[in-house]
Specification:
The complex is a heterodimer of chains A (113) and B (113). Chain A is mainly beta. Chain A has no helices and eleven strands. With 113 residues, chain B is mainly β. Chain B is globular. Chain B starts with a strand and ends with a strand. Classes of the chains: A mainly beta (113), B mainly beta (113).
Chain lengths: 113, 113
């Protein structure tokens, strides 16, 4: 596709439910990032992949959060036993090797009720 | 906490005037500094970047200035247009295997017609 695609666009989960958020990066982009953006705040770094290798997961807020990119393209961010504080927009971005410009998807807005 | 922050949360300018958005950073090891624009309901969009060994870079209607002595970054938008209304984030690339991008909290720019 032309850009980074994220699905679903909106997700409502009951507290305690597991969710999986999908990111399709731009084809050929080596780097992939996940961010969490609360209302009125800047994107907070969660984790970073280079191809299939997860090089940095220091931003994942708890062990309920897990991300994978098994074949170095599509990535999934999984949140187990969702809590209300997990409500946010989850942004995915991809970047070509050697570039500083990251291309962002429109995000998945997660609401935990 | 974040190492990149912003001086003002909101900025209101008249259409046609120049806008200046400021940002302070604390991580001296950053290799690149980047400005992103985020419109409502969309992911951040790259505007311009500047390498840490430069002090000025110009793009189309935008100029980024970097003052490493005081750890200050600014984005200047010439002849501001209604379409420039958005939230602007400064960000920095930090080495972590590859480079991860850390965002500040953002400044909302309002352009009055």
């Amino acid at each position: 596709g032309a850009g980074v695609s994220q699905s679903p666009r909106y997700k409502v989960a009951k507290r305690g439910q597991d969710v999986a958020l999908r990111c399709d990066p731009i084809s050929g982009h080596v780097s992939l990032f996940w961010y969490q953006q609360a209302l009125g705040q800047g994107p907070e770094f969660l984790t970073y992949f280079q191809n299939e290798a997860q090089l940095d997961k220091s931003g994942l807020p708890s062990d309920r959060f897990f991300a994978e990119r098994p074949e170095g393209s599509v990535s999934t961010l999984k949140i187990q036993r969702t809590q209300q504080e997990d409500s946010a927009v989850y942004l995915c971005a991809s970047r070509r090797r050697g570039n500083t410009e990251a291309f962002f998807g429109q995000g998945t807005r997660l609401t935990v009720v | 906490g974040e190492s990149v922050g912003l001086h003002l949360p909101t900025l209101s300018v008249q259409e046609g005037d120049n806008s200046i958005i400021n940002c302070a950073y604390s991580n001296s090891a950053s290799d690149y500094f980047i400005w992103y624009k985020q419109e409502s309901g969309k992911g951040p969009q790259f505007i311009i970047d500047i390498r840490s060994n430069m002090d000025k870079r110009q793009g189309q209607r935008v100029t980024v200035l970097l003052n490493k002595t005081v750890k200050h970054l600014s984005l200047q938008i010439a002849a501001t247009q209604p379409g420039d209304s958005a939230v602007y984030f400064c960000a920095e690339n930090i080495m972590t295997g590859g480079f991860k991008t850390i965002f500040g909290a953002g400044t909302r720019l309002f352009v009055k017609a």
